[in-house]
C-alpha cells in the first residue's frame, strides 16, 4: 500500500515508483551507446534540445523529485530520486552545460533556502521545466577570494532598484536567462553586511555579456556589465542587507555540500581507472611496468577520494550547521587531486595525449582519448581556483573545523566606505 504524504496525494511505494519510472524511461529516453559520444556542447541547438528534454521530464513528474510540491516539485524523499537515477543510468538526460549544473545544483537550491514564496512560485517551476537557466553573478574584477568586498551596487529608486557595476567568471552566462547577482546596498556598515542578492534577467536593458576565451579554446567564462539596470523588489532573494547569509548557503552548494542536484545522475566508473587503462591500451603502453604503476596509483587515489566524499556526505547530513565548512574538504580534494590525475593521464598517454584528429567523420570536434586527456590537463587547475582557492579552503578548514586561530583582519569591523577610503592611502613602503 502507498504511504501517506500528509496532503491529498499518497506517496507511492518505492518499488512501484521504480517500476513506473523504468517503464517511462524505456519509452521516452534515448539509450546511450558505450562509450557515450560527445554531444553538441552549448551551442543553440544543443541547449534547445536539452531544454526540451528537461520539459519532458518535468511534465512526466521526474524533475525536482525531492523539491517542494508547492513550487512544481514532487515532494518525495531522496530514496525516490536515487531510484530514478539508478534506472536512468545509461540513458541520455538533459544536457544544459555548465549553466545547467549551476542552475540545479547551486542557484535553485540557494533560492529554495532563502527566497520568498512569491519568488519561488514564479521561478522554480520554470527552472524545472527548462525555461529558465540561472548563473552566478558573484565574483568581480576586484573581489575574487574576498567576496565580501564586492562593489557592484544597487541603489533604491522609487519602488525598485538600479544596478551598476561588473561581474566576472560567470560560467555559461552567454546562454543563460537569469543571473543571481550579489550587490552592495549599504556602504556604511562592515563589508559582510549591506549586501543583497538580486535575480537579474540576462537580456534586461543595460546588461552586457562578454565571453572570455580560455586556454582550451572554449569561451564558457563571461564578464557582465550593468549600466542602470532596473530591478524590482520582487527580484530580491533573501533579505535586503543580509546577502552574506545567502552567500554562505550558495558557497556550501558550490563546494559540494548539497545532498540533491535535481535531475542529474551520477555515473560512477567501475574497474581500475578505466579511462587510463583505455588510454594506455590505445597508446600501446598497457604492458609497460611504469605505466601500469601510474594507473594503479591513480586507482588508489580514486578510491580514497570516493571514500572521503562519501564520509563527508554522511557527516554533512548529520551536522548541517557544519556543512559549509565540511564542504571545503570536498572542494580542496578536487583542487589538489585534479591536477595530479590530469598529469597522470598525460604521462600514460604520452604522444597520444597531445595528438588527435581535429574533427571526426561528421565534422564535429574530435573526441579521441588524447583530446580528453589534453583538455583535462588544461582544465585541471580549475577547481583549485573557482569557487574559492585551495588556500581559502584551508583557511576555512583550519579556522572553522579545526578551531585554529583566525588570521588577522583589519577591515572586518569598519564601514565599507571607510575601507575603500583608507585603501587609497595604503603603501608598500
From TrEMBL:
Residue ranges occupied by any Acyl-CoA dehydrogenase/oxidase C-terminal domain in the UniProt entry: 241-402
Instruction: Outline the extent of the Acyl-CoA oxidase/dehydrogenase middle domain.
Output: 138-229
Pfam families from the UniProt entry: Acyl-CoA_dh_1, Acyl-CoA_dh_M, Acyl-CoA_dh_N
Question: Single GO cellular component annotation?
Answer: plasma membrane
**Coiled-coil features, chain-numbered ranges:** none
Instruction: Tell me where in this chain the Acyl-CoA dehydrogenase/oxidase N-terminal domain is found.
Output: 16-131
| One term of GO molecular function | flavin adenine dinucleotide binding
Q: Which cofactor does it need?
A: FAD
Keywords attached to this entry: FAD, Flavoprotein, Oxidoreductase
* Family as reported in the entry's similarity comment: Belongs to the acyl-CoA dehydrogenase family.
Protein name, per record:
Acyl-CoA dehydrogenase
